[in-house]
Amino acid sequence: MIPRYSREKMERIWSPENRYQKWLDIEILACEAMTKMGLIPEASLKMIKEKAGFNVDRIDEIEKTTKHDVIAFLTSVTEKVGADGRFIHMGLTSSDILDTSLALLMQEAADILLADLEALLGVLKRRALEHKFTLMIGRSHGIHAEPITFGLKIALWYGEMQRNRDRLFRARESVSAGKIAGAVGTFSFIDPFVEEYVCAKLGLKPAPVSSQIVQRDRHAEFFCTLAIIASSLDKFAQEIRLLQRTEVREAEEYFSPGQKGSSAMPHKRNPVLSENLSGLARLMRSYAVAALEDIPLWHERDISHSSVERVICPDATILLDFMLSRFTGMVEKLVVYPERMLKNLQMTHGVIFSQMVLLKLIDKGLSREDAYAVVQRQAMRSWEEGRDFKSLLAEDEQAKNYLGSDELDAIFRTDNFLGKVNFIFNRVFGKE
Q1: The domain 8-87: what is its CATH number?
Q2: Is 113 exposed, middle or buried (0-12, 13-18, 19+ CB in 10 A)?
Q3: What is the DSSP string of 225-286?
Q4: Of 15, 188, 262, 286, which is the active-site residue?
Q5: Is 274 labeled as catalytic in the residue annotation?
Q6: 0.85 exceeded by the pTM?
Q7: Is 382 labeled as catalytic in the residue annotation?
Q8: Pick the catalytic residue: 140, 141, 256, 263?
Q9: For 99-187+201-253+270-336, which CATH superfamily applies?
Q10: pLDDT tens per residue across span 216-228
């Protein structure tokens, strides 16, 4: 059973307390590195570790004057440390702290999203196996094509979400880059050892080269990955919306006791959760565009990316956390109607077997062009007259020269479409 969604974990990541704690951790690690280099007295480091802290309200108060969040933070910390606070932030620039801490925050957010993906994959696998041989019509262009199974449809979703999980692992790695290289990345007043030490302690890799900031192509990759994941959810949700249409009604969202679908029409059961996901995916894609716009900054850095990231970092990760949780719950409770699937599959009077007839006629020696003409002629009659396709073929003067009644019976069996289902499932899920 999927636990009820809670946004508290993701929101905590982006809280001022967690953000400032990351800043403090980085500053203290930098002091440790400089102490190892003999730049800070051991006694001063000890005092910094014992007394360093911050107060969010005090930082806010100081920032009203400084108009600079990092300076406000450093002032608040120094007030607690006292004279030894002069060693904090030596040779560093604000972005050393901001970008290195952002990497840690994005790592934490990615870990929650990866756990969400694992939960969804588990539910998708269970429902795919449950409906492995639940026969339904496959559609291309919205038109009946050939039979598939509902399990294959969900297995397709599973495979896509596996790729999304892999993408997010790679994107997490991409943003896991720290930078302690000074004002324009030249290490003018700080030794590279400090960067190496801090990053190693935090589980980050130093950016091989940076300007004043870690370059934003890394972050754009992360947000584009989130947008791809959201777009996959949009795709799946749209499929549920299409299957829930009254004329189709092969699957639908769970409708709980007491739930209402319309203020005016008591009969309505609308795919509101799926529609909600499709709408949110549009918003997520806009965050990816915003992240891409952050890549081109002036010279070694301007601040235009900062305001964007203050919005999209918490919003996008919180939003995708919610979307994954919502869709997982939807799939777990999705109501499936195999009988309706079978009824819909049969509504086109057997024309879904047209390719099998075509291939059999070719196998019997008819040219592809002539075989196609025969099959299409009778398929169109079946569509237009509502007559049984197999019967029309049995009456066709050209077709019956090649296909007897026993052969037609063997062709018009839905089992013919299921022979490779196990093969596909083994490729997707591995052999059980």
Answers
A1: 1.10.275.10
A2: buried
A3: HHHHHHHHHHHHHHHHHHHHSTTT-SEE----TT--S-SS-TT----HHHHHHHHHHHHHHH
A4: 262
A5: no
A6: yes
A7: no
A8: 141
A9: Fumarase/aspartase (Central domain) (1.20.200.10)
A10: 999 999 999 999 9
